[in-house]
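User: structure tokens for this one?
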Amino acid sequence: MHNHVFRDRQDAGRALATALASFAKRADVLVLALPRGGVPVGYEVARALQVPLDVFIVRKLGVPGHEEYAMGAIAAGGVRVLNESVVRMLDIRESDIEAIVDAEQRELERRERLYRNGRPPPDVRGHSVILVDDGLATGSTMLAAVRALRTLTPARTIVAVPTAAAETCNELRHEADEVVCLSTPEPFRAVGLWYADFSQTSDDEVRDLLQRARTAAATPGTDRWEAP
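Assistant:
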């Protein structure tokens, strides 16, 4: 599946779940989705595997004036990953980095409150954690997620995405225990090119899917998972 275009994030999630079938119905497996776009994908994965779903919140640190270009990322728990070669190449000042970190930290905390409603993050110790996003271009956000997650000592860290740049998948294989990239088109350019519908996921949609997943997890023995 080298050049596949997915219909939407739900379609991508269902396809990804097929590749992760070996994790189905295991008590030690947890799906953590990167909001916002990773949540509809992660919901379909968790639903198919019949395992719990939660979010892992990571914020990209954009280069000043070129915010879409990542110079690093931060994740919950005070983890910061900086791409030193980008910082050096563009000669980005420490004060600029700090200002961007502060702004993104506030957004990270806002999302924690919004999506979690005061619930603590899940305890990942001893679990096989599947980190899901809707796709990877540079991979800096997912790299931060993997490094942050590893400080919480899960048993295994699995990165799973429907589409990604091949080089990014290879880089992540040095960081995670396992990497599943369904489609690695060349040239990759941008995640959105590989979806027919790549409309933005809203905060409300994230909250709704997390609530549905919790309801399903709270009623064992029945399939309470609903299609979005």
